[in-house]
TrEMBL record, chains A, B:
The lineage of its organism: Bacteria, Bacillati, Actinomycetota, Actinomycetes, Streptosporangiales. Gene3D superfamilies: Winged helix-like DNA-binding domain superfamily/Winged helix DNA-binding domain (1.10.10.10). One of its GO terms (molecular function) is DNA-binding transcription factor activity. Signal peptide: none annotated. Residues 2-136 form the HTH marR-type domain. It comes from Nonomuraea aridisoli. Pfam families: MarR (PF01047). This is MarR family transcriptional regulator. PANTHER family: CONSERVED PROTEIN, HTH-TYPE TRANSCRIPTIONAL REGULATOR RV0880.
Length: 140, 140
DNA sequence: CCTCATGCTTAGCCCAACTAACTTAGTTTT
DNA sequence: AAAACTAAGTTAGTTGGGCTAAGCATGAGG
């Protein structure tokens, strides 16, 4: 039973499902969906093109078009054009979008922080140690 | 910077997003969706009632009704009745459903196992240690 | 009985993903 | 230089998965 990858895989699968449910519970009732917040986050460091956004979010272009349409209607992002290539549309945060992003991120981090603060210091250290391992999953 | 819950929260948030994308990539193109496999898994140890399934999957009853309808149409589950209360519908796996569940679980665990086998023994131990901590999140 | 609560389904809505088809703008080929 | 191809986005249409509201039985209590 010691260091059995299959047994570990089963336990990981169980926890992943738990986390998915947790995330859904957290994002219920928010003004924007978690996908939309994710897109706003991608725009934090400057304008991006549609293809870049779609690829980063593992989504097809039409899906991203619809998301950006909604965010544009809500006044949170603005479309622009690339002077060197008239085919590409750029997307950037509006002032309101940036503000919304900061607010959401603050409260979300605050929630998570509260959960983590309820753990022992040792548990937090255990979690912190595992993060780089989680990051390696799916990179193969 | 040592044991800073806020800083840890930010890193955890990043990894959670990574895991969500990973899961979506894994379940793309499967004959059933991950939700439907999840429901099949709940039926592994015998019949359940609709309310129990809905609660376990953190979903409203109508949503579960639709899911069970689809699984029933596909011949993977069968509805029954509770002899002691004519209001409740029970749901159980058909032989085909059980077979499908076993196949899917095998291949999914196999995939995860392959990923985990690519890690070092120490990394697996780190991950295993963190699982109980992850399980505690959201229980507050 | 009549009323109320419970378990489930139906109907109708919205969001998020997909593919297919189209438009427009660059790039290559001849 | 014109034709053919490729690339970037958008639009249209479908599917899945979630929700609430409303309806229909059935069970439980006055």
């Amino acid at each position: 039973m010691r260091d059995d990858p299959t047994h570990l895989a089963e336990q990981v699968a169980v926890e992943l499902r738990h986390l998915v449910y947790l995330l859904r519970r957290y994002s219920a009732g928010q003004p924007l969906t978690s996908q939309q917040y994710g897109v706003l986050g991608s725009l934090e460091h400057g304008p991006r093109r549609m293809t870049a956004l779609a690829e980063e979010h593992a989504v097809q272009l039409p899906t991203m078009t619809v998301q950006i349409n909604r965010l544009e209607d809500a006044g949170l992002v603005a479309r622009g054009t690339d002077p060197s290539d008239a085919r590409v549309r750029t997307v950037e945060l509006t002032a309101e979008g940036r503000e919304r992003l900061q607010n959401v991120r603050r409260t979300r981090i605050a929630n998570l922080t509260r959960e983590l603060a309820a753990l022992t210091e040792e548990e937090r250290a255990t979690l912190a140690a595992a993060l780089p391992v989680l990051a390696k999953l799916g990179r193969s």
